[in-house]
Amino acid sequence: MNKLLLTLGVTALSPLALAKPVIVTSIKPVSMVVAAITGDRADIEQIVSNSASPHDFALRPSDLRKIANADTVVWVGESLERFLEKPLENAGKEASSIEWLALNGMKLHNFAENHDDHESHDDHEGHDHDKHHDDHDDHDHDKHHDDHDDHEGHDHDKHHDDHDDHEDHDHDDEHHEGHEGHDHSGVDPHVWLSPDNAKILAQVVTKRLSEIDGQNAVYYQANLAKFEQGLTAKDAQIRAALNKVNTVPYIVFHDGYSYFERHYGLQHAGEITVSPERKPGAKKVAELRHEIEEHKVQCVFSEPQFSPAIVKALLEGSNVNTAPLDPLGGKIKLDSNAYYRFLDSLSDQFLSCLG
After folding, report:
1. pTM for the complete prediction?
2. Is the dihedral angle over the CA atoms 224, 347, 255, 149 positive or is it negative?
3. Nearest to residue 335, comparing CAs of 178, 186, 227?
4. Which of 51, 241, 246, 302 could crosslink 265 through cysteines, CB 3.0-4.6 Å?
5. Is 16 or 254 the better-scoring residue by pLDDT?
6. Which residues of 127-154 are buried (b: 16+ CB within 10 A; e: fewer)?
7. Number of structural domains in the chain
8. What beta strand segments (E) does 2-145 contain?
9. Which stretches are transmembrane (predicted)?
């Protein structure tokens, strides 16, 4: 009898004993870095679907449940995903979340007023993340789009002064004190396009997982070492390949690739739109056609998250190449090698159109 009760007790407790940590992520690139560390020891639940864009997204009730049940929420930050800021606060998850933009050691870029400064991107300047960018007051990420009360995205219509402001952070803490103190206005939030920044996130995710799932800490730390070693090799491989096309002019769909471009020495000649959810007007299209001719642009990139009709209209009657450039890696299979394949896919997309 006692033996039977003991067996039943163990069986009843087993699901709890075997429960995996649940890591909720905002977008696919975040999931890729997290997956490199979790392996099969933690579950990842992503909020923004692979076919959607974080620039214009509204949470569903199921997403709110994911946040409430998460052991940790990993997101890029409020300047990209303002739709997460209030729900994290309401669920009491804000302090325990990992906000990529706010992590110690990140190298961040500001949006530029124009792209004539691309030659001067070599300097890395120190940046205090707690300081407000007083000279960027005209860039208001708090504004909602008129037709989207629940869709909070980027307003990139107003650019910023200093595109060569690479920001490096050296602080004692993993995060800066309190999310309320982070002013990321003016900062380009597409940080996942930098392998260096991916390493920073991987290190913090490893530390957090080791804290909430101590019995697998050695496993997570081994995955981090493997990820860092593999990323160093992949980075060198991609750099060698892209060096062959780093003088070829091209136009991107929107100004969201500066981390990848600067890291690998690429240089776009312009962008179709600075705010991806807004179509460019006739004047902008005319300016772009002039730029294509003037700079002898060889490729205009579209994005799978947005209609290619704009690109088709822009290139009508020309012989300029076009190809999709996916900054979110929507079709990449999510596993421990996903981030490597994501970098490969971006590199291949550039090479196919510029080579």
Report:
1. 0.77
2. negative
3. 227
4. 246
5. 254
6. bebeeebeebeebebeeebeeeeebbbb
7. 1
8. 22-25, 43-46, 72-75, 98-99, 124-126
9. none
